[in-house]
Amino acid sequence: MTRSTWIAGILLLGIVPTMRGQALGLRPSAVGSDSRRLIAAGTLWRRDIPHYGKWLTAAGVAALTIMGAAEHRQSNRDWNQLLTICHSAQDACATGPDGRYVRSDAEQLYQLSRQYDRRANHWLLGAQASLLVTTALFIIDLHPAGPGNIPFPAQMQVGLAGGGAAVGMRLAF
């Protein structure tokens, strides 16, 4: 599967239970216990999957980043070996008409370095995608209705004054 298919699938997982409940027209006051069980399962799905899934995807971010760093270190080792060969002699890194190194060991190190670099890029792109999913799950896991009404203390007043707003506060000394 492609990466975009995985991301779309993960995003749809959070949407499907809501759409299923709406399609069935279920309400908490429905007569059957089956409908209550289905609603409870949907609530559990929307509550528990983001709550625990965010930590799983956060661990995935760390693991993918570590893997990307390991591939990058290997790429740097091969590149540094190539530079050692190039500095060893004047024509050690001469290229042919096709753009490849004339020396086979230099060409092999160059190709290995590129290969490890591509792998590192793939791991790091996966880590970024996983970080995006983790961020989405953290946001979904917030209280769905937001915080309750947070009233101002009785000593604070907010109102209109002239052409704007006025804020007043009484402080006791």
Describe this structure in words.
It is a single chain. This protein is mostly helical and 173 residues long. It has one domain. Helices cover 67% and strands 7% of the residues. It has 3 helices and 2 strands; from the N terminus they run αααββ. Strands 1-2 form a two-stranded antiparallel sheet. A hairpin with a 2-residue loop joins strand 1 and strand 2. Helix 1 packs antiparallel against helix 2 and helix 2 packs antiparallel against helix 3. The longest helix is centred in the middle third of the chain and has 56 residues. About 8% of the residues have low confidence.
Spatial separation of the terminal alpha carbons: 68 Å
Helix content: 55-70%
The H/E string reads: HHHEE
Major sheet details: 2 strands, antiparallel
Mean pLDDT: 78
Number of domains: 1
What is the number of helical segments per DSSP (H or I, 4+ residues)? 3
Low-confidence stretches: 15-28
- Outline, from the CA principal axes? elongated
Rg from alpha-carbon coordinates:
29 Å
- What is the β-strand count? 2
Q: What structural class is derived from the secondary structure elements?
A: mainly alpha
% residues in beta strands: 5-15%
Q: How do the strands line up in the largest sheet?
A: 1-2
Name the descriptors:
2 strands, mainly alpha, two-stranded antiparallel sheet, 67% helix, single chain, 173 residues, 3 helices
